[in-house]
Amino acid sequence: MEIQLKSNAPGIMEETMIEDGFFILKFQNETNDNQKIIRDINSSYIQFHFCVKGNTKFNFNNGSYSIPLPDKKSLLLYNPQRDLPMNLEMEKDSSLISLLISIKKFHSLFSKEADYIPFLGEGNRDKKYYTDADISPSMTVILNQILNYNLHRSIKLLYFKGKSYELLSLYFNKPEDADIDQCPFLVDEENVLKIKQAKEIIISRMAEPPTLQELSKEIGLPLGKLKDGFKQIYGEPVYTFLFDYKMEVARQLLATGSHNVNEVGLKVGYSTASHFIAAFKKKFGTTPKKYVMNLS
C-alpha cells in the first residue's frame, strides 16, 4: 500500500504492519496545539477509526467537507470507487487508534469462503459505506491497552495482532437477531453459503430438481442474486451447471458397465431414453451406446 505521511509535529503517529494488508496506527497528540496528519490510503482498504480521547476531525475532498469524531466514538470508512486518504485534524490532548484492512484480508478473518466473496459481493463492493458508533467499555479497555502497552519490543507485533483481532471481534459482535445490514461486508459470506447450499440441493435432487423460483425460496436468496452469484462462483448458470454434472454422472455410470442406457437415463432425470441419448450426444458428441462400445 502506498504510504505518505505528513505531520506538523514528530511523534504523533506510530504505525505497525500486523500482517500483509493489515495495519494498526496509533495517533497521540500530546502537544499544546492542534495537529494535522495526512496519510495516503488506497480504495482497497476498509478503515476503522476509534477516538479514545479528545476530538478528531476527518477532512475529505481537500477540506470541502468533514466528519467529526468525538471522544468514545468510532468511524468505519469504505469507498471502493476512490481512494480515501486520511486527512486528520487532531485537537490537543487527543488519542486515536486506526485499523486499516484490505477487503480481502477482512473477509478472510471471518470466513473460509474468502476466495469466493469478492466475486459475489457486487452490491457491497460498488457502494461506499460510512458509519459511526459508540465505543463500548470493553473496547475502551483494549484501545487503552494498545495505547499504553509496556511490554518487551520483541512481543509488540504479537500483542498488537491479538488486540486488533479482539477489537474487531467486539466491534462486530451483534445479537443473533440483529439486522444484517449493520455489517454489510459480511452479507457476502451469507450469500456464498446459500449459493453453495443451492448447488448441493440441485445435485442431491438432480433427477427431479426444483425450479429456480423454488430453489430461490428454499435457500432464502432473491432470484437475481441466486442466478448472478451462482454464475460468478461456479462459472455457469444453475441449470447449465446441473446439465454438465448430470452428463458427467451418466458417463461414469456407463463406464462401470453395470447399468444400461435406460437405467442411467432414469438415474440422472430423463424419463425417456431418446431424451437422454440426445442430451448425452449434445454433451459428448456421441451416443451412450457408442461411448460404451468405444470403451471396450
UniProtKB/TrEMBL annotation:
Gene3D superfamilies: Homeodomain-like
InterPro entries: Homeodomain-like_sf (IPR009057), HTH_AraC (IPR018060), HTH_AraC-typ_CS (IPR018062), PchR_regulatory_protein (IPR053142), Tscrpt_reg_AraC-type_HTH (IPR020449)
Pfam families: HTH_18
The keyword Glycosyltransferase appears for this protein: no
Start and end residues of each HTH araC/xylS-type domain: 196-294
PROSITE patterns tied to this protein: HTH_ARAC_FAMILY_1, HTH_ARAC_FAMILY_2
Protein name, UniProt field: Helix-turn-helix transcriptional regulator
Organism: Aquimarina litoralis
